[in-house]
Amino acid sequence: KFNVKNIILTTPGERITLPRFGVGVKAALFEPFTLDLRDILRNRILEQISLYTPYVALTELYINSASQGSMHIRISYIIKFGQITDTLELNVSNI
């Protein structure tokens, strides 16, 4: 759960040794929440989790604007080794 959360909340360029690591969700909070933005975030999350946590398979990915300047993300996933399932819910805001 920590690894998935870390990928979502890290801004690309924040980790010097891995400059492309991270989704950069917080930067998206300042953009109008459109279907295009949701698709961009969804694709970025799928790409990053596949690349940096290949042992995790997403079963559900939900992204919604909770209010101006905040976003709700729910990710259900299975850890391939051991068949462990879990859900991560994040409320991200610009505060």
How much β-strand is present in the residues?
25-35%
Global outline: globular
Structural class: alpha+beta
Order of helices and strands: HHHEEE
Tally of extended strands? 3
Q: What is the helical fraction, as a range of percent?
A: 25-40%
Gyration radius, rounded? 13 Å
Largest sheet: 3 strands, antiparallel
Order of the strands making up the biggest sheet: 1-2-3
Termini separation:
23 Å
Tally of separate helices: 3
Low-confidence stretches: none
Q: Return the average pLDDT rounded to an integer.
A: 92
Summarize the structure.
The chain is of the alpha+beta class. The chain has 3 helices and 3 strands, in the order H-H-H-E-E-E.
Strand and helix map with partners:
Blueprint: H1 2-9, H2 25-28, H3 35-52, E1 56-67, E2 70-79, E3 84-93
How would you describe this structure in keywords?
single chain; 95 residues; alpha+beta; three-stranded antiparallel β-sheet; 3 helices; 3 strands; 34% strand
Please give a structural write-up.
- It is globular and about 40 Å long.
- Strand 2 and strand 3 form a beta hairpin.
- The protein is of the alpha+beta class.
- It contains three helices and three strands.
